[in-house]
Design brief:
Elements: H1 4-29, H2 34-51, E1 55-61, E2 66-70, E3 74-76, E4 79-84, H3 91-95, E5 104-113, E6 116-124, H4 140-146, H5 162-168, E7 175-180, H6 186-200, H7 202-205, E8 209-213, H8 216-222, H9 225-228, E9 235-238, H10 253-260, H11 263-273, E10 282-286, E11 289-293, H12 295-304, H13 310-348, H14 352-362, H15 376-381, H16 384-393, H17 399-403, H18 411-425, E12 434-437, H19 445-453, E13 460-464, H20 478-482, E14 487-491, E15 493-498, H21 499-504, H22 506-512, E16 520-523, E17 529-530, E18 534-537, E19 542-547, E20 557-558, E21 567-573, H23 580-586, E22 590-597, E23 605-608, E24 615-616
Helix pairs in contact: 1-2, 5-6, 10-18, 11-18, 12-13, 18-19
Length: 626
């Protein structure tokens, strides 16, 4: 049952939202300046994204006051009528429990169909008996757990649990690491954490957010979550696209792993450092002469550039040498003039300086001293011979000069090129206020260095599970990935995988991660099955066939591309052909049924209640590279 007053309040909120959208649209129609127009377009997009399920909750305090919770805050005459889910006032909606009601009597969940309230479900938190206005029923979490998968991740803003919300709202400003088994909501927490950080810390929001995922399929799966939370400035990239380039070649896993090791940093640094000069005398052209620069001056020039990347250091080195050439030329000119004066005085008996000074005095020009000389820098900088000479001593470099020039690059190569570019030209231009790394166990040490360069503030949310690491990863601890300074959280409740499927994987988990415990599942279902002759598919059921990367299984999703995804039913083909970690990943993607298929020729025939609506996981087109 839905009360009339609840519907009236929700309708009023939509009226206010419509008025805000109309105001922004009118201002855009007036053709504002480009910077203002960009801000308005972003605001309009956020307002439109908030329209779906604008309000989803309400909290009733013991003192009789109430607050509605939604996707964004709304005010009328300065008074709030809807509280943004990220605001401090909304925290009790997620964190209150019967053991700690946080001053609440009731938590209400609202479900909307368009702009119409179709159901409410109340939780009484203070121990009081239900009253005539209470609507006790299943909340949105139960509905979400029972709902079929759609192939797209939705936000969980209405269903965040206390364990998750505590991480989302953490006051820690550095690197937040979230670990947990498959299905514990790591991705949900990461994306909602990013939205919260951008809301709570405006300085972070100025530079936007970068989301790093394992592959294009995963990015397609999550791409609408942040916009639905009001954040439209997120840049989504795969782990191989961190540098802004796209790999055009592949290589054996063992080769990629060698390139991904942290020791490659020292090798690249040594190669770059070897292109810098040693402290020694040098000779540089100046006009028709060759000038000797002593070792002390060269040492000063090298020292001035010591802490700079290679090419900026070369610039400073050159500037020091030009200044030294100017000093030497000035000294040489002064010595030449003195010699001319001395020779003239000896031959004629006339002191030229005194004679010139007397002439100037008689003409009414006072003062004395040498006439100003043109700046040497302009003359020297334009001298191509000097630049060529310095190139011999301290050459300009590009990343390919260090890594090698190739026509095709692998993902591991791109991380090495990025490392070289940072040593040669400095940090990348594109940096972000917050960075999310999902399936973080997949990154190599060199890829981690590329990520960290793009977040100098170290405001990051890192989520992963080393038990699910693929063959290419070179990292086994979070300290190895992000350094010593981070805050770690562990999720323990499983919202995806049934207890029966988890139990089926218990021994496998003990082999690949002896110290890791199974999460506690909120779902129950049938035990995993060995492939039956036929398989009945429900009309809204999302099915995936997952096979080993090296086997050609028609219609199958390669196991390397299924991390982070979930399906109603999963058929795992030839599990004995998987690595143990890959098998664990494949066997924990299902929310309802896990079917073990011993070989590709044992795939069951499918019978669908509605063949035209049966949906099988497909490989999506990759998103555009930013």
């Amino acid at each position: 049952m839905v009360t009339v007053s609840e519907q009236a309040l929700v309708s009023r909120m939509y009226e206010v939202l419509d008025a805000e959208m109309a105001s922004v649209t009118d201002e855009l129609a007036a053709r504002p300046a480009p910077d203002r127009a960009a801000v308005l377009r972003g605001r309009l997009a956020a307002l439109r994204d908030a329209e779906h399920a604008l309000v989803f909750g309400r909290i009733d305090r013991a003192d009789g006051t109430t607050l509605h919770i939604g996707r964004r805050g709304l005010r009328v005459d300065g008074e709030p009528i809807l509280i943004d889910w990220r605001a401090p006032a909304a925290e009790p909606f997620y964190a209150a429990t019967a053991a700690n009601p946080m001053g609440l009597r009731r938590r209400r969940h609202l479900r909307l169909d368009g702009r119409r309230v179709v159901s409410v479900a109340d939780e009484l938190l203070d121990g009081s008996p239900p009253g005539p206005d209470d609507r006790i029923g299943d909340g949105p979490l139960a509905e979400a757990l029972a709902a079929p998968r759609t192939g797209r991740m939705g936000d969980a803003v209405a269903t965040l649990q206390a364990e998750q919300d505590a991480i989302v709202r953490s006051a820690y400003r550095g690197i937040t690491v979230v670990e947990g088994g498959p299905g514990t909501g790591k991705t949900v927490v990461a994306l909602h954490r990013a939205a919260y950080v951008l809301f709570a810390f405006p300085a972070v929001a100025e530079r936007g957010v970068l989301v790093v995922g394992p592959d294009a399929r995963f990015l397609s799966y999550i791409e609408r979550v942040l916009p639905s939370l009001g954040e439209n400035d997120a840049v989504l990239v795969t782990r191989t696209g961190i540098t802004g380039q796209v790999p055009t070649a592949t290589e054996p896993v063992d080769v990629a792993r060698r390139k991904g090791r942290a020791e490659m940093t020292d090798r690249i640094r040594s190669l770059v450092a070897a292109r810098r000069p040693a402290v020694a005398p040098i000779w540089l052209p100046l006009g028709s002469e060759t000038i000797d620069i002593d070792a002390a001056a060269v040492g000063e020039a090298i020292a001035a550039a010591r802490d700079l990347p290679h090419n900026p250091g070369r610039k400073v080195f050159k500037e020091y040498l030009i200044a030294e050439l100017g000093r030497i030329r000035a000294a040489m000119t002064a010595a030449t003039l003195d010699q001319i004066d001395a020779d003239t005085a000896a031959a004629t008996g006339i002191d030229l300086d005194a004679a010139v000074a007397a002439d100037l005095e008689s003409l009414g020009f006072g003062g004395s001293g040498p006439a100003p000389t043109p700046e040497l820098d302009d003359v020297v900088v334009a001298d191509p011979r000097l630049d060529a000479a310095i190139d011999q001593i301290w050459p300009r470099l590009a990343a390919t000069d260090v890594i090698g020039a190739q026509t095709a690059w692998t993902a591991a190569d791109l991380a090495l090129l990025d490392e070289a570019a940072a040593l040669i030209d400095g940090p990348p231009e594109a940096v972000y206020g917050h960075v999310v790394v999902d399936e973080a166990q997949e990154l190599t040490e060199m890829e981690w260095r590329a990520v960290l360069r793009r977040c100098p503030s170290r405001s990051m949310t890192v989520v992963g599970d080393f038990a699910q690491a693929g063959q290419g990863s070179t990292v086994t601890t979070w300290r190895q990935a992000v350094g010593d300074r981070f805050e770690r959280h562990t999720l323990t409740v499983n919202y995806r995988t049934t207890a029966e499927i988890l139990e089926y994987n218990r021994e496998l988990l003990a082999e690949i991660a002896p110290g890791q415990r199974l999460s506690r599942s909120l779902r129950h279902g049938t035990p995993p099955l060995i492939a039956p002759p036929t398989l009945d598919i429900g009309e809204d059921e999302l099915v995936a066939v997952i096979g080993p990367d090296h086997l050609d299984v028609p219609g199958a999703l390669p196991v390397s591309e299924c991390r982070g995804l979930e399906f109603d039913t999963v058929l795992v083909v030839a599990p004995h052909e998987f690595t143990k970690r890959d098998r664990y990943v494949a066997q924990t993607r299902a929310t309802r049924r896990l079917i073990i298929v011993p070989a590709p020729d044992a795939l069951p025939a499918r019978r669908s209640a509605r063949p035209d609506r049966t949906r099988t996981a497909r490989r999506p087109s990759p998103p555009p590279t930013p």
